[in-house]
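STRUCTURE:
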């Protein structure tokens, strides 16, 4: 029997899924890149490094952390969205993952990626942000800070990881609720913004508790309040904005692991199993994140997907309230 070219191609197409499934069963057979879309030193990086080290012990392959910063997180996130869906490129993302495409639309640009291009694997941490000022500053409370800001509109600076980043949105919630005008100074990530605050070239910053904790303990920075519903372990003396009467000022920086959407289901399942195992059983990871002030808050499956959808919708609304940034 002679097969025409169209029939041959159809037959080959029918067989195509078999190698993918075989690869999924054998995965991983080589190192897995964990991309962080921000410079070293920020919340994503603080979570990524001990998590990658723990995954190496379970998966038996190297998991190098690759910092691919730019455009407030867009560059690194888009690179993973476009990566081969084979499980060898993962994204350790922040809650800003959903905000950035909306910010691009507001600015009149086509988004470099959309959240629909990712498969959510699991959430690792979920931390309220903390408002920081240099210890040398005159502000010893939020009341001091707000009163000064009202006297000097636009004179007090706050930093962020870029326009519409998590740190920008958190402070925007405060400025709206307190009716104050601060000068926004965007950086390429939370790490550089924190460095500027430590050097005294920046007046204030919303930060994840992990990167901030050691500096507060050493007396270099002062924490005025947190964006959580409850006080943060390690920051027990720091009131929440809700306690201070700002009922709508509530915000969290969470970290989660994502793969490109078309990654085979067996590979997604294997990565999720490995991440669950390290989050539940790896004492080294637990100690590292606890010491960083960012305890494990693991979610997976439908629970994480629902959380991701709901949180993304809330953050997109916040970005829309900020509007276009010149």
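SEQUENCE:
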């Amino acid at each position: 029997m002679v097969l025409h070219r169209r029939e041959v191609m159809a037959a080959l197409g029918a067989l195509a899924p078999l190698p993918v499934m075989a690869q999924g069963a054998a995965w991983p057979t080589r190192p897995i890149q964990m991309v962080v879309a921000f410079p070293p030193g920020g919340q994503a990086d603080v979570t990524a490094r001990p998590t990658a080290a723990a995954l190496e012990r379970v998966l038996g392959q190297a998991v190098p952390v690759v910092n691919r910063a730019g455009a407030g997180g867009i560059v690194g996130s888009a690179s993973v969205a476009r990566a081969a869906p084979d499980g060898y490129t993962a994204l350790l993302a922040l809650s800003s993952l959903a905000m950035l495409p909306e910010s691009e639309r507001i600015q009149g640009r086509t988004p470099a990626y959309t959240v629909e291009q990712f498969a959510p694997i699991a959430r690792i941490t979920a931390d309220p942000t903390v408002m920081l000022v240099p210890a040398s500053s005159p502000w010893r409370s939020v009341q001091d800070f707000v009163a000064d800001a009202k006297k000097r509109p636009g004179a007090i600076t706050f930093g962020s990881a870029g326009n519409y980043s998590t740190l920008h949105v958190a402070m925007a919630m405060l400025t709206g609720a307190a009716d104050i005008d601060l000068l926004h100074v965007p950086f390429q990530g939370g790490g550089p913004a924190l460095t500027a605050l430590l050097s005294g070239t920046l007046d204030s910053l919303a930060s994840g508790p992990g990167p901030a904790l050691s500096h507060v303990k050493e007396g270099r920075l002062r924490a005025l309040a947190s964006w959580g519903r409850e006080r943060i372990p390690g920051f027990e003396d720091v009131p929440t904005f809700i306690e201070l009467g700002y009922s709508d000022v509530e915000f969290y920086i969470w970290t989660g692991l994502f793969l490109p959407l078309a990654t085979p289901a067996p590979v997604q399942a294997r990565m999720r199993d490995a991440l669950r195992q390290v989050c539940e059983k790896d004492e080294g990871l637990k100690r590292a994140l606890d010491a960083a002030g960012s305890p494990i808050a693991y979610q997976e499956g439908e629970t994480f997907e629902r959380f991701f959808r709901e949180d993304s919708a809330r953050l997109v609304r916040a970005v829309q309230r900020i509007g276009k940034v010149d």
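REMARK: The chain has two domains: 31-127+253-322, 130-226.
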